[in-house]
Amino acid sequence: MKKIILQGILYDEKSSYLKGPALAPPKIRSLFMSPSANYFAENGREIAPEIFDDKGDFEIDTYFDIENLTFKNLKNSEHLLTLGGDHSITYPVIKAFNRIHGRVDVIHIDAHADLYDIFEGDKFSHACPFARIMEEKLINRLIQIGIRTLSMHQREQSKKYDVETIEMRHIHKATSLELKNPVYISLDMDVLDPAYAPGVSHHEPGGLSTRELLNIIQAINVPIFGADIVEYNPTRDINDITGMVCAKLIKELAAKMIENN
Ligand code: MN
Ligand code: MN
């Protein structure tokens, strides 16, 4: 398999509550390369930096630039790992992804459904990306996992777009997904309980443990074409706890991409 494209998006302009996720990509890279840990994923694969075709971190002038930038980075390749950034980046990234792979299935792991039609006057807020993705039919199937903040409006949106939801209160179902097609995984760090990942803008109690999140990823048994890790906010982190989780997730996601290829 070709190298996995790695890109960092330094962007948090669509965050509704706190800035900070724009600082995440270089922080995650440095923790990924920290001598405090080795490069081995739990399945035995070594995820050294050479596994990646690292395109670097990108400052973003205009939100819509993220699509063309991603398209350019991904062209002639297959697998993509993006470090955000707030969750708004997933819509333009999936738009670019769709131009190359067509309509894949998406596993969205988050405390929030991010399905608002509009949030605080902005249709591209980090609370809206999956409404845009579904209304433009950029993907086949949307499976949301870990959700624990559904408002009435978001329940309606979820029904309207045929979203398959495994709410946090039913989380035991998340390790037996019935998957047939290649997937893209969008991973919002606030799906984790704030006890495991304090470095996020929105602390939502009652979330996943790091172990439960890894079990969900490791149970995926179809090809993984792309993934993003978003909403890590280094300004809220304590002793790099959350940053080290992101670094481990790079290893686990990349190892799964290779294993399932
Ligand atoms: Mn989100
Ligand atoms: Mn979230």
Written account of the structure:
With 261 residues, this protein is an alpha/beta fold. The chain has a domain at 4-104 and 183-259: Ureohydrolase domain (Arginase, Chain A, 3-Layer(aba) Sandwich). The chain has helices at residues 24-32, 65-74, 90-101, 129-135, 152-160, 210-218, 241-259; strands at residues 4-10, 52-59, 80-83, 105-109, 142-147, 164-167, 183-188, 224-230. An 8-stranded parallel beta sheet has the order 2-1-3-8-7-4-5-6, with helices on both faces. Strand 4 (105-109), helix 4 (129-135) and strand 5 form a beta-alpha-beta unit. Helix 1 (24-32) packs across helix 7, helix 2 (65-74) packs across helix 3 (90-101) and helix 3 (90-101) packs parallel to helix 4 (129-135). The protein is globular. The chain binds manganese (II) ion (2 copies).
- Say which molecules are bound, naming each kind only once: manganese (II) ion
Beta strand %: 15-25%
Beta strand count: 8
Helices and strands, in N-to-C order?
A: EHEHEHEHEHEEHEH
Alpha plus pi helix count: 7
Which outline best applies?
globular
Average residue-wise pLDDT: 97
What's the arrangement of strands in the largest beta sheet? 2-1-3-8-7-4-5-6
Helicity level:
25-40%
In CATH, the architecture of the domain at 4-104 and 183-259 is 3-Layer(aba) Sandwich
CATH class of the domain at 4-104 and 183-259: Alpha Beta
Main sheet properties: 8 strands, parallel
CATH superfamily of the domain at 4-104 and 183-259: Ureohydrolase domain
Q: What is the rounded Rg? A: 16 Å
Helix-strand makeup class: alpha/beta
Within the CATH hierarchy, at the fold level, what is the topology of the domain at 4-104 and 183-259? Arginase, Chain A
> Cα distance, first to last residue?
8 Å
Low-confidence runs: none
